[in-house]
Write a structure and sequence with these properties.
mainly alpha
């Protein structure tokens, strides 16, 4: 039996064939795990979201869309990177709210879990800065999402954005410097 072609399956999914998703996921699972590991490496060491959980949450976000206009593998990876970003930001917001007393519940003090995600404030500050960057220069913002959250290489990012690798290198350098200044000032 021939190995299924991910590009063909993406096209079938785009055309509304939900069964193609079930066939596609095992083919892209390891790639998504690699990108999730990359995203989690940049998080606080006490981060409690696992690679597997991030991949599964990303997958759920991707399949929740009724009709997607996938262009190719690079476009799929770009959308997966964006979905990973949303999962990580939502996770940080939940932990930030929990640390600040969000959704208070009366419990016995012996049953209170210790929150280990001390980097939630930093993740949220980075996301706010990234949102400002995206409003100033959309391509710089997309470059950060693809490289930082999606773990795409310079070449993969260039393909997803439709620009030259040298442009991505320059944009990546500019975006990191801009974000560093914004987060450091905050």
């Amino acid at each position: 039996m021939p190995t299924p072609d991910p590009t063909r399956l993406l096209a079938q999914w785009r055309d509304g064939n939900q069964a193609a998703v079930d066939e596609l996921f095992p083919l892209v699972y390891e790639e998504l795990r690699r990108r999730a590991r990359h995203s989690l490496r940049s998080q606080d060491p006490g981060h409690t979201l696992t690679t597997t959980a991030l991949v599964h949450e990303t997958y759920l976000k991707l399949i929740a869309v009724d009709r997607v206009s996938w262009h190719d593998r690079a476009h799929f990876l770009a959308l997966a990177a964006t979905a990973m970003r949303h999962v990580l930001i939502n996770y940080a917001r939940r932990n930030h709210a929990a640390k600040r007393g969000g959704d208070p519940v009366r419990v016995d003090l012996d049953d209170v879990p210790v929150l280990t995600d001390t980097g939630a404030d930093q993740i949220l500050a980075l996301d706010e800065a990234l949102c400002r960057l995206e409003s100033l220069d959309e391509r710089l913002g997309r470059t950060v999402v693809l490289r930082y959250y999606g773990g795409l290489t310079i070449e993969e990012t260039a393909e997803a954005l439709g620009v030259a690798p040298s442009t991505v290198k320059l944009d990546w350098k500019k975006a990191r410097a801009w974000l560093y200044r914004e987060v450091a000032d905050a």
